[in-house]
Amino acid sequence: MPAMDATMNDPVRELYSERRYPDLSHPVTDISRLWVSARVAGLGRLAEPSHCRVLEFGCAAGQNLLPMAERYPQSDFTGLDFSDTAIRKARQASYEAQLQNVRFEAADLEHWRPSHPCDYLIVHGIFSWVPDSVKTRVLDLCGQVLSDNGVVCISYNTLPGWSLRRDLVPLVKALAGNPVAAGLGDTVESVAASLAEMAGGTTAHTANVQAICRDMMRKGPTVLPFDDFAPVCDAVYFTEFAKWAAERGLRYLGEARLQDNLPDGISPEAYHKLAPLAADPVLLQQTLDLLSGRTHRNSLFCRVDAAMEEGVTTAVVMHFAAGPGPVELPPVDNPVVSLFRQLVADASPSCVPVQALMERTAERLGGGWEPAVHSRELAKWIYQAARLGGIELRAEPLSIRGQTMPTPRLSPLNLHFAGQGRPVVDARHFPCRYPDGHQGLMAKMDGTLSYEDLAEQAHADFPELDFHRWVAHLAERGIVL
Ligand SMILES: C[S@@+](CC[C@H](N)C(=O)[O-])C[C@H]1O[C@@H](n2cnc3c(N)ncnc32)[C@H](O)[C@@H]1O
């Protein structure tokens, strides 16, 4: 790692004291999914989300940690951040939602000392955005704070994919508001828009420039100053990152999202050719980064001496709960798998234990069900489908009623978020922001007002809002309970 530059710490501190970091929850760090991803990678004794200790570095105002603390009342959650303002906001939310199992510490990671081990360590949006001295400290802490069979989920920008973006950033900055570049735009977003248009996208390079500029436009002024245009925004080769982790006694397990283990744009034939590289997972991953142009990772590491077990057996897959994933998979020519898929779709938006889904499949098939053969076949398919994004796997079932109740109600935490104008967080840990007035309406959904009363108020205050459709959407996402 390059020599540390102490003065670099100030611009980062300055940024977080001067500007408000947006409230974001990150589904990729949801411990229900992390448990599955670590489990299939062989970390067999990782504590289940329902009874575990979770630590988050750089937790900001707790938008990521608090919903998990509310979901798992028997688990302990600790969030750490050097922004006093963010920590005060996080504490206020935990107080309002009466959460007894979460605490927030205002501390600088550079000087903080862990007092107890954790089973899940979440380090999202930190590593690439802090000075080298803090990077070193973060990695040291990852090596020190994990329990024997714990897991860390850490995000960072990766090379060579990030390199073009790294080169674009100073150029976009130099052009923004520059009199000699008049017409390209006064802000970095407007310059990105001009470049996206001019790039045209007819060659691989210009398409890449265009995609990066469009991504900058999508992130916009609320996110860009903390991301691409942050005072520190580095990238690293995976081989280098894995080496630093290994020096701290950490072993690479895989990516936090199962589907990120097979990055987009690489054909099944290429994967087949690369299969022998499985003997050197770090080299395989670096090759995949080169081929796919991946720009970002959310990687899982455990202690090198953690107890490893066989990852993907039928018994292991039976432990999970399954629901439909974000990717539509093509039909399969296998009646058992087709029936199973139909049952998953029927249960949507809920996630159901794989065991129960298999039992239902067996019931429907009657005499055609061969337990040993079909359960193995289905377990294999479920795992493959999850890696392709066609199935979502979680540690525990997710029960979403999906229909609206006579007195719609939000969880105490979402009620607080809605009242504060913060995004609410859905049952799958996605942040959901609605127009301010609509948020205010949600803040009234505390279970005391009837559906009809709320509909009447909505009609009076927001005649343009299709209240019935909106509440159905909130119920479908598990926001309205
Ligand atoms: C880019 S934000 C990411 C927030 C959140 N983890 C996320 O991904 O949405 C970085 C956070 O790390 C905090 N941070 C940066 N350097 C820190 C340090 N040395 N010690 C503690 N917190 C730090 C900032 O205050 C900020 O809340």
Report on this model:
α13 crosses α14 (354-365). The longest helix is centred in the middle third of the chain and has 20 residues, at 204-223. Residues 1-8 have low confidence and may be disordered. By secondary structure, the protein is α/β, with parallel strands linked by helices. It starts with 8 loop residues before the first helix and ends in a 5-residue tail after the last helix. It is globular, with a radius of gyration of 24 Å. It has four domains: 6-160 and 235-303, Rossmann fold, CATH 3.40.50.150; 163-226; 314-394, no CATH class; 412-476, no CATH class. Strands 1, 2, 3, 4, 5, 6, 7 and 8 form an eight-stranded mixed sheet that branches. It has a three-stranded antiparallel sheet with strand order 10-9-11. It contains 19 helices and 13 strands. The chain has helices at 9-18, 31-40, 65-71, 84-96, 132-145, 163-175, 188-199, 204-223, 238-247, 268-274, 281-292, 314-318, 335-347, 354-365, 371-388, 412-420, 436-442, 451-461, 467-476; strands spanning 53-57, 76-81, 102-106, 118-123, 146-159, 236-237, 250-255, 296-303, 321-324, 352-353, 391-394, 424-425, 431-432. The structure holds S-adenosylmethionine (SAM). S-adenosylmethionine is lined by residues 12, 16, 21, 24, 26, 58, 60, 81-83, 86, 108-110, 124-126, 129-130, 134, 226. InterPro entries: CFA/CMAS (IPR050723), Methyltranfer_dom (IPR025714), MeTrfase_reg_dom_prd (IPR018773), SAM-dependent_MTases_sf (IPR029063).
